[in-house]
Give the backbone structure.
Amino acid sequence: MSLAEVLPEVESLSRLDKIRLIQVLAQQLERDPGDLIEPGRSYPLPSPDRAFTAAAALLQALEEDKGQP
Amino acid sequence: MSTPAQQFPYVRRDPSLGPASLAPMLPLTLIARQSVTTSGLVDSGAAVNVLPYTLGLQLGFDWDQQTHSVELSGNLAAAQSRVVVLSAAVGSFSPVRLAFAWAETDDVSVILGQVNFFLEFDICFFGSRGLFELRLKL
């Protein structure tokens, strides 16, 4: 069913039912994971996920830090 | 006896993205020469903690005095990074010592990663409930 087909029926709803419809649609959109990620949009991924050499350097720095007063 | 867990809510990081931007952002105070209250992304996929450049300056670190350089990966690979160690106060837990890769960029949040945030805290994520839970290591 297309939007053009639905719209005339929506127009015939009472004001209260239109508000209820908005609420129902908003709740559905909030729940629908398919709509959470928008095609063509950039999503940052900052995780340094394989920085194991850096991780080793940080562990070494923590060991040195333990030895300080 | 283990310390009691503390819960924190997921936070919308970008209002225009709504629930797509929900993330476990932990409020914390970083303590070096200066103290700064901020929030950090609790990121189990990050190998290391990451500190943005300006925040490092606000904490009183001098870039030229930090001699240990490290290389990061992902979209931080292009930024130079140096190792700093500082204290962090989280909730009502006792402060912990955290080592950070201090990145020469502000195009990143504070990241709390495996080394060594996840070595100091046990963390449970309850994404469907929009909260996460921290407990100090045993």
